[in-house]
């Protein structure tokens, strides 16, 4: 049995048998630190990060990452485009090596790696720098890591640590949400600099992000219920996860967590796209996890849900899945197996990802898998 892990700094006085669970429970604290550093501290007018590019220094953003960091980048893309209105593209670092995206002097290249040592990201950075030194571009590189002393951080023009603290488990959890906080902070800062966020909306953003730690804690309080769902899936070989809009990357991240920690074949899909062929996979043995956060706020234009992100599409898809005889496990929504606090859609990834992390953890435990050290995967330990 794994020796219990203790942390006297945690608000919850409990023992954790594994680093992964401990790090999941540290997220209210790490999110709160990030919000204080990257959102609350920005001030009220034309906020800027120290020693980072101003919004008028670039016209587009490209983001390179791998694995969990790639999914954080996809959420970041959504926020950068919807809030700051900056055209943004996301690419797997390994695919960038195969076919580099065209860049210009007006491009800001963001590279994301929790360890700061990811080989594909380093190689992609070097390829981009070769283009720049050859006179093909001249863009700047901004690194987001959890280790300011890492190779990626040292080789970038700009860098920021997400400040999540040491993450020992191979499966990334708290570094994922810490990356999200930084992306939201960047989108808000650059959005303000570009006059995309009026004063009243800025105040609303700050207050709603300040509420995230307590809302995440509310989700964590459902741990026992999530563990029971995990035990019911012990003999399940395939799981489908569905999301829409900003929660599509969370469906991808949940599928990755299930694959890497429980060895379950899991696939994440955009809910509407799932109907275009992939629904043929379903039968009564394959459950579907549907991410259905319900937003209560519709009066604030900066936080209002895009029309394509409403719950109607997910409702139609899940109804069809049920008619086909497959089980649906809803996270959020009116028929939730796992309830979520009410929040705006643009902030919902902080809440929808937590049940998926806990589900992956408890399913791995039910299957007697060494959750902190899954097979075939290695990880660089990092500091903050």
TrEMBL record:
One example of a Gene Ontology biological process annotation: protein N-linked glycosylation
Keywords attached to this entry: Repeat
Pfam families: SIS
Reaction(s) the record says it catalyses: D-fructose 6-phosphate + L-glutamine = D-glucosamine 6-phosphate + L-glutamate
PROSITE patterns linked to this entry: SIS
Signal sequence residues: none
EC id: 2.6.1.16
Protein name per its UniProtKB record: Glutamine--fructose-6-phosphate aminotransferase [isomerizing]
